[in-house]
Design a protein that fits this description.
about 100 residues, 5 helices, Arc Repressor Mutant, subunit A
């Protein structure tokens, strides 16, 4: 929903270009619409799509942790992997996304 809103808003403004964004503002748990701008949403969405193409499980883990607010144990259950695997996937994903969005 946020991505569709951002696309519509940017199209209406005739804007373009990506803005650097990090995941630090969502580390506490969930994303709030007022905390991120339209460009940030699109940049993050595009980076998550690229991550999922590179490593689908890590991409799903990020979505569940940051946008779904799921614990590492819950993610491990859904993905049918161990908690240490989820930890590794999230560390990898965070580093990968930070590099993509820098």
């Amino acid at each position: 929903m946020l991505v569709d809103y951002a696309r519509a808003s940017l199209a209406a403004k005739r804007g373009g270009g990506a803005v650097n964004v990090t995941l630090s503002h969502v580390d506490a748990g969930g994303v709030h619409r007022e905390d991120i701008g339209d460009y940030d949403v699109l940049a993050l969405h595009q980076a998550l799509e690229r991550l999922s193409e590179h490593d689908r499980r890590a991409g799903r883990a990020v979505e569940m942790a940051y946008f779904g607010g799921m614990s590492h144990e819950e993610i491990a259950t859904v993905l049918d992997v161990s908690v240490p695997t989820v930890d590794r996937d999230l560390r990898f994903a965070r580093a990968w996304l930070n590099r993509q969005l820098a």
